[in-house]
Write a structure and sequence with these properties.
Elements: H1 11-15, H2 20-24, H3 36-51, H4 56-62, E1 63-64, E2 85-86, H5 92-105, H6 108-127, E3 140-144, E4 153-159, E5 162-169, E6 173-175, E7 179-183, H7 196-207, H8 211-217, E8 242-243, H9 249-263, H10 268-280, E9 287-292, E10 300-305, E11 309-315, H11 317-320, E12 323-329, H12 336-346
Helix pairs in contact: 3-5, 7-9
InterPro entries: DUF3500 (IPR021889)
Protein name: DUF3500 domain-containing protein
Pfam families: DUF3500
Length: 347
Amino acid sequence: MEVSFCPHMNMKLAILFLSPVFLLGSLQSHPAHQPEEAAAKALASSAQAFLSKLDAGQREPALLPFSDTARFDWHFFPKWNRKGLSLGEMTEAQQTAYWAFLGAVLSESGTAKVKGVIGAEAILWEQSNRSDSRDPKKYFAVFFGEPSQGGDWGASFEGHHLSINLTVVDGSHVYVTPSFFGANPDETADGARPLAGEFDRGLALLKSFDAGQRKLAIGEKMPREILTGARERVAPMAFQGLPAAGMTEAQQGALMQLIEEYVGRYREPFSEDDLQKIREAGVGKIHFFWSGGAARGEPVYYRIHGPTFVMEYANVQNGANHSHTVWRDFENDFGYDALEHHLEAEH
């Protein structure tokens, strides 16, 4: 059963329940414009540094074979049996090393969103009398394959309302989908909004449309949840909504800024590659679909759908104070096509 947001609990109080290491963020400094290969090597080094701090009992759940099918078993619901080693099972030194690894994956905005997601979970934990299923320390880290400078490996960081999935191919190409971020409460009593940009930019784009554009963009039937779910792979669906080809240049720019809100959760060497792929597939072919209200506090669903990707936003539950967002790549969720091409090249 979903626990409702307690209006007397604020984000500052929620943060008190998180590890001091988590609050510091423990981010290492990485050049903003590294080539992808150099950034991938930095990822491997950060991952190796974390794994070197684990004892044998901790390494067993934290390091699985790259071929393990658990790599594709992801979800954003509260679950009892997630794969990996939880934050609560790590020492502070190990948490420091793990957050340094995440700092090599995520941008500053992405890190702030992760902190906000886990902080919101801490609010639910207190509201549910510290239910085990809402424990903010139950976010799990796992690696698939030994992280290396030249091989294939993966990583996952997952808990309620968060699923970060990383695939490194040939030690040099990095894929970051499926990517799920959610927040309950979406807005805390003290006004914290971990996923504010995803909603605010979407609403601003909608409000920029004229009557004819709105007629194409807005649908009557509102999904109550993201349609792509937690499936291993997602196929392209029928386009709905207003195509970017029917937008003004300024509106197309606003659409790309909204897309960057999702892609920009990750460090620039990785996000730039994804943005380039989206642009090359054709910005004019991207469709924007909206249903529901047109103000904060009203149930809302929107979808951004291009030839190679889909992004969804749903804020319908708990009086429209419980948001889900997801970004899927039709070709390279879990690095699927890239791995296939890599194997073909080896043979």
